[in-house]
């Protein structure tokens, strides 16, 4: 099941704490597949809390993914009176008892036997790096090890287990910590929760473990500040936390219909348990009381570009936008295998885009279907590569300042290309951005894929806690993408003869129109006239 991608990179998907939530599990599995990761491991607690324990057990059994047994799985198989979970309030204790009883009564002896056969731990060796997969900790399945655990305690756990990396679940909050010692670097990774997150984000979580050389790992996972080499080896390790939105309301409906407590079901909407939710409400009330009329303009810009939730911690819109920019970049310069993944990933990420009267939604849906079918055939893949070369005038000659379509048809001309390139170089340095060589192709500063990658980079920085990056994204969109890139999208969508490039052009046109609304910026008139072709 190993997928090393390019070079020696190894990508591993870790998911945990499904807790009987089939819809969340399916959304995570689809996301893992869409991102091209084929090596998967589950870190336990397949059941408990959720309404679909039977379906989840059967789904994971059919997948054949290695699973480290969780405390719920073990308690069910050993017929314990409780799963041994720790609850913070009386209400949560009662809710937990009811959900445990429901789970016990739902599972057949065949399902119970499957849970009982799960291994307590799974050990991997990746080029000399020892990785232990478990549920709570190597010591105890129910041990609570969270992001605030002292580094010395984490290091002691790892050294006692005789490995370099420990990956676990149980606390329902994803995190990555690295601990340099005198002779090596140790890592602790938590995969969060698929079915019942507890960090205030209700979206399903899974974690991508990336191992490879320093350069490869930084290119794949640049935002992880805990990125270090692993153990005493030259292998570097980093993580990417992925959050996947799914419709929680049918799950809540099924919980209540099954007789599970409404208070237990309500936690799926907030991504918090009862005691944490109450504490958050008190904190927000205090914050609102102290807030003054003046507001930091940089922070205001960040809040404008997120989904509008208070507190500045919500990044759901930014996550979708980042994924869209990065997927579009891959369509315009990745190899065929990357394009196959990017097409599906882009469709998912763009579901939150606004509907515009200037965009033909039916044409985009049809173009996606045609493109998805085309890249599944050798003939379709060859036609795509030939079309992309035709539209770009050759992979080594693309210059957006003088040519969008071909060497003999100029559709966008800058008055001073050299000055524009200098400005772009300064902009990228200010934003701490280096253009990735996707698919082995490295393009120029003003290439469409490079500019889209830069926007994705800015939004990732914003989501990671740098509000000024949102300001840079707005400025770059207004000064660059809102002019020539929208025109480029219209032209490609109109001129492309094969399905994939047509879909790329139509999707880019729709996405940039949506982004213009996010930035409260109008598209220039010569780009808005989709039906009249190029500007005069």
Task: Describe this structure in a few short sentences.
The protein has helices at residues 22-34, 53-63, 71-77, 90-106, 109-116, 151-161, 214-220, 249-257, 262-270, 274-290, 297-305, 316-333, 336-349, 361-374, 378-392, 417-430, 448-463, 467-495, 499-518, 525-528, and strands at 10-15, 39-42, 122-126, 129-133, 165-168, 175-180, 185-190, 204-212, 228-229, 236-244.
Q: Which key phrases capture this entry?
A:
single chain, 536 residues, alpha/beta, five-stranded mixed β-sheet, disordered C terminus
Structure description:
This protein has 20 helices and 10 strands. It has 536 residues and is an alpha/beta fold. The chain has a 5-stranded mixed sheet with strand order 2-1-8-10-9. Strands 3-4-5-7-6 form a 5-stranded mixed sheet, covered by helices on one side. Helix 12 runs antiparallel to helix 13. The N terminus and C terminus are likely disordered.
Q: How much beta, percentage-wise?
A: 5-15%
**Spatial order of strands in the largest sheet:** 2-1-8-10-9
Distance between the termini: 54 Å
The helix/strand order is EHEHHHHEEHEEEEHEEHHHHHHHHHHHHH
Judged by helices, strands and strand pairing, the structural class is: alpha/beta
Largest sheet: 5 strands, mixed
| Percent range of helical residues | 40-55%
Work out the number of β strands: 10
Radius of gyration: 25 Å
Q: Number of helical segments? A: 20
Mean pLDDT comes to 82
Shape: globular
Question: Low-confidence spans: pLDDT under 50, at least 5 residues?
Answer: 1-6, 308-313, 394-413, 525-536
